[in-house]
Amino acid sequence: MTSAPLALAERTAGRPAGRARRLDPRTKAILVLASSLVVMAPGGTPFIPAAIVLGVLLALSEGAWARAVLLPLTSAAVAAAAYLLPMALPYPVIGFVAAFAAYLLRFAAVGGVALHLLRTTTPTELTAALRAARIPRAITTSAAVMLRFLPTIATEARAVRDAMRLRGVGGWAGMLRHPVLSIERFTVPLIASSLRVAEDLSAAALLRGLGSATRPTAMHPPRLGVADLAAVGLVAALVTATVLW
Amino acid sequence: MTTTTSTERRLDVRMSPKDLINIGIFAALYLVVLYAINMIGFASPVAVLVSLPASIVACGIPFMLFLTRVHHAGVVTIFAVITGGLLLLGGHPPISFAVTIVCALVAEAILWSGRYRSRRLSVLAYAAYSAWYVGPMLPIFYARHDYFSSPSMQNMGADYTRQMEDLLSPAVVAAFDVSTIFFGLLGGLLGLRLLRKHFEKAGLA
């Protein structure tokens, strides 16, 4: 039962040597929430560079070189669209696109930090972290199931889309000509096939004690370590630099 | 556990593992449908105008099927916490999470008034839940002064800034929210129709 999109993350997670230097999933989640809270708040624009620097450093720490380069480049392009485009073309329509770009810039800044969490954390680790954060059982159990099913259903969705393409339905033109019909043709087979898979997987999960009252133990229990301390120090330095500057 | 007249009409908050699994499965389905339809929108900014309403309508189908399968108080709230929570960890603004929870509570109240069995009220509940779509857009509006007070916008002149302020007014946000509720209603109705047309025949509803 390996899931294709998360296979890479699983491979890196299994390496015991790298574990000591990796961040605790709880720290990664807190980094996302903190940067999102600060950057998305009114008056959060000055913190955008700090969030981008954090995103780049996190990308470097996991060895995602492409993201480390693309994140500042994309942000710069979006910032240009937000602040320089209206000067060249002062029309309200362009202005709306520019205002949207100013928001996308915030989104990109938080997204860099969020991608680190999503790319380096397996569903199992995230579930263990949620349990360690003492989130109610009803939420952790259903979240665990959701995280387990997302890759499976995404694979099903790709299969349905390929089948639609093979029959010459769907795609852009079909969506515009018969919107309701193409929605029906996509979602109904997706739901039907996903629920068939779900029957088996949920029976297996129930047998393995999912949702039982006893707290499951984790193979790699989340622990806060030196790396997390370093992350907190880094964030403190970035915030001080932004405030003083 | 609260005991009422019959087990059929039981309303309790404690859910069986089976219910929790169902919530997780449908939350995953909802997110995949949401993203699959919105992926079309990444082609151009104009495409978003088509894909956003289309995704609201499409998500009505798994949501309506979900409501026929789980009849417990609190289902929509847990659904909202896990889907909204994952989007929050994916970089969505925190205010969006708060909006999602409020919409879920409203939907929950509507469902509760039909004892979680009424199909007509399920359509209304989905429409109410769809109002969360305004959440991810909110920072454009509440943080607009950040943008207009930036040095490059100061150069644009008062006339331009006033025009843009009008474009990003609370009235526009309200109109957007009303449109999401309208498309949510359409999605709920489509879900109901497909429930009868496909899922009941297949024994899935």
Automatic annotation (TrEMBL), chain B:
<feature type="transmembrane region" description="Helical">
    <location>
        <begin position="95"/>
        <end position="112"/>
    </location>
</feature>
<feature type="transmembrane region" description="Helical">
    <location>
        <begin position="171"/>
        <end position="192"/>
    </location>
</feature>
<keyword id="KW-1133">Transmembrane helix</keyword>
<keyword id="KW-0472">Membrane</keyword>
<feature type="transmembrane region" description="Helical">
    <location>
        <begin position="124"/>
        <end position="143"/>
    </location>
</feature>
<feature type="transmembrane region" description="Helical">
    <location>
        <begin position="20"/>
        <end position="40"/>
    </location>
</feature>
<dbReference type="InterPro" id="IPR011733">
    <property type="entry name" value="CHP02185_IM"/>
</dbReference>
<keyword id="KW-0812">Transmembrane</keyword>
<dbReference type="Pfam" id="PF09605">
    <property type="entry name" value="Trep_Strep"/>
</dbReference>
<feature type="transmembrane region" description="Helical">
    <location>
        <begin position="46"/>
        <end position="66"/>
    </location>
</feature>
<feature type="transmembrane region" description="Helical">
    <location>
        <begin position="73"/>
        <end position="89"/>
    </location>
</feature>
<protein>
    <submittedName>
        <fullName>Trep_Strep domain-containing protein</fullName>
    </submittedName>
</protein>
